[in-house]
Amino acid sequence: MDEISLHTPKGLSITQVLGNDIRDWRIETTEGDGPDLLHVGLSRPQTGRYGLQVVGESTLATFPVELRLPVIETVGGIRAGGHLAVGTDSAIALVIKEAGGLSQVDAQAMPNYILDNDHPRRVPTGKVFYYAFASTAYGLVLNLDNVEPTMDAAVRVLTRVGQDDIRIDAQVELDVRDAATPGRSNAARGDDGGERHRGAGG
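Above: the chain sequence. Below: its structure as tokens.
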């Protein structure tokens, strides 16, 4: 085998193709709504197990949005089963609406395929769903929306009454949850009317 061909859905922009002995790769655009073709040329024929990593991206509409997951399919293969992990690293609510041709599995059942030490396959750190499939003719529809952060506030006020004035020191601690980067912010006000802010990411 000295060339690999894959069907790639329209709307999915291929940004990287990684693997050993890759000579070149190109996208063959097709007419109509059918998938395009990704051709990967190899500098020497492969006879054993071969790993290929395809990286792509697609633009999303304004949230909330319904997304049908793009599926990359091999061309000319006898069998095309495997595993799928879908998740998010940021503050996005991800709900599975449809999952056809997929069987949900535990995280431990997901094979840890590594192309090489320089190109690990990073699993999302947020909410992740794991599936197994026996054919690439599967369909996965997601509902995506922004997560509105929730916030708790703890307020501490210290009032000092003097003969000529009143000094008020107020400290507010905010505990933000379900945001991409939870943090804490404090504010204090003195009798001079100025405001001082102290912030620390958590």
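The radius of gyration is 26 Å.
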